[in-house]
Amino acid sequence: MKNRKKIFLVCFIIALNLLYGQDKVGKKEYKKNQEIEKEKEQNDLNSEEKLYKKMDLKSKISYDAFKIAVLGYDSIIKNDKKLLTIVDFTKPSNEERFFVLDLEKEEILYETHVAHGMKSGEMMAQNFSNVRSSNKSSPGFYLTENIYNGRNGYSMRLEGLEKGINDNAKDRAIVVHGAKYANPTKNGERLGRSFGCLALPTEVNQEIVDTIKNGSIIYVHTNNKDYVSKSQFATLARMI
């Protein structure tokens, strides 16, 4: 009787070990399969998607805006900095829509509000122009230039890089500057509006301008059909 109990106990222990071993193997296999699936998913993504996910931008910048911005950034020979600023004018002015990204460190340096041109719209920027005295914003890619002190205080000149879209920026005196009307309101009202410049909140303007001045890229994103049809960068993004 005692021998039977011993045999039963030994068999029970062996069975437990086998079950535990199988469970351990099963968990390892599951983990391995999960890793394979994750790696496959990553390989299926293009470089822009990978960077977008890695920087966790989904809740801040639309992927369309990011994709065009990065493809344009990579295409612009004059660009000599690892900074990319995206202005997402598909968002209302009472939300943060001015983002300075460090592509080398893969991090957001600044995210803040920005005002659009008074003739571009009220809460949303919907109408755009490259014409002097239109008081409208212009979409597309810009190269940042030097700093100066003008009637709006600490300001930064911009070179519009897209012919027929924003290349009259200098002639129109379209710059980045600070303005009280660009400060966000407590009750979430729309910001004030500029004559077409990118107007930033006063308390962050100088710090941001000093960071992105002299040779970094700014991309102003819109859903404007005219821009999408004319811009070589937007066209490139649609092809990829």
CATH topology of the largest domain: L,D-transpeptidase catalytic domain-like
Count of the separate structural domains: 2
Radius of gyration, CA atoms, in whole angstroms: 27 Å
Largest sheet: 8 strands, mixed
CATH class bucket of the largest domain? Mainly Beta
Determine the mean pLDDT: 87
Report the β-strand fraction as a percent range: 15-25%
> Between the first and last Cα atoms, what is the distance in angstroms?
77 Å
Instruction: Specify the number of helices.
Output: 6
Low-confidence regions? 40-44
Shape: elongated
Which oligomeric form is depicted?
single chain
- What's the CATH H-level superfamily name of the largest domain? L,D-transpeptidase catalytic domain-like
The amount of helix comes to 25-40%
SSE topology string: HHHEEEEEEEHEHH
Order of strands across the main sheet: 3-2-1-8-4-5-6-7
- Label the structural class: alpha+beta
Number of strands: 8
Please state the second-level CATH architecture of the largest domain.
Beta Barrel
